[in-house]
Amino acid sequence: MRIAHVTATFPPYYAGTGLVCYHQAEGLARLGHQVAVFTAAGSSDEGFSPEGVQVHRLPALFRIGNAPFLPGLLNMRDMDVVHLHYPFIFGAEMIRVVSALRHVPYVLTHHNDLIGDGGRRYLFDAYTAVVAPLVFQGARKWLVVSLDHAASCRLAPLFRRRWADVVEIPNGVDTDLFRPDVDGGHVRRRWGIPERARVLLFVGALDRAHHFKGAGYLLRAFARLSDGNLWLMLVGDGDLRPSLEVLAEKLKVAPRVRFVGAVPHRDLPPFYAASDLVVLPSFPPESFGMVLIEAMACGRPVLAHDIPGVRTVVCNGEDGLLARPGDMDDLLEKMRALLDDPGRMRTMGIRGRAKVEERYAWPRVVLRLLEVYQEVAR
Hints:
This protein is of the alpha/beta class. The chain folds into two domains: 2-172 and 361-377, 3-Layer(aba) Sandwich (Rossmann fold); 185-359, Glycogen Phosphorylase B (Rossmann fold). The chain contains 15 helices and 15 strands. It has a seven-stranded parallel β-sheet with strand order 3-2-1-6-7-8-9, with helices on both faces. It has a six-stranded parallel β-sheet with strand order 12-11-10-13-14-15, sandwiched between helices. The mean pLDDT is 93.
């Protein structure tokens, strides 16, 4: 099949949507399909193309945050199916037009809702009300990372109109790269973390587009823990990082907090290995949390918020714990319960790894995705 993936973000920019696109395209190419990715050009894109995939990095006429306007999308042709990774302001509308002009079917993956802060909130609300229904109407299938999130997100009324066309395709993880036997000792030494210290890990982009990940919330929770042997590593970068560094100083925890910055995806496993507990205190519109399955693949227990989508990934009490969103006391209670019971954390890590191998290994996910393409193409 000739398959096109269209995404607003793509590696080396670290974000879940782009990583999902990367691995889906790579997996389809390995199965012998002709795959192309259409995305925006960046300043440092060398060496970030999946093997066997043609990546078209198009110049943006302009952009608003992570929404580039790419006129080059209109030149797309000779495809059997187009896969749109949504939300993609400007790009989604372009694919609706391309589909009509070229008579090529498209499917879309709804990764999360558009929710902004400040003035962007009203722009996103207007876009969701007016444009999203037109884009969704043209898609043959609506892919979601979890049915739980689809049933409770802001676009749930839209999904319910064509629930038979909603297909759950979860995000995946490279189980050969992310595995429990990786050594994280050099990470601790590089960042000056004592060998016997216990480490909390946060992984996620630190920019406005991902403010819902809860990095600041985790910092405030960490400051309430009196354990001087507990450290916090934050892996990720973005325009929110300077304010978070100021917050760490203000909370008087900066000496035990490490802002690692952006880390290439392939280099992440040692950071998971260097941690004792991976925490993702995100709020909606978080729909899945790839960090969670990466941590599980590395045999690490996870602590996250009990929100739609995330609670599909984490089995509370089995491979991690879920805390009530916005209830910092509950988050801290569950954090202490895990850190004080190393045996329980090891057991959770083993269970998490087994679940990832069964449900979230990329080859399994890609085969399910291919079935959708073949149905649409027929």
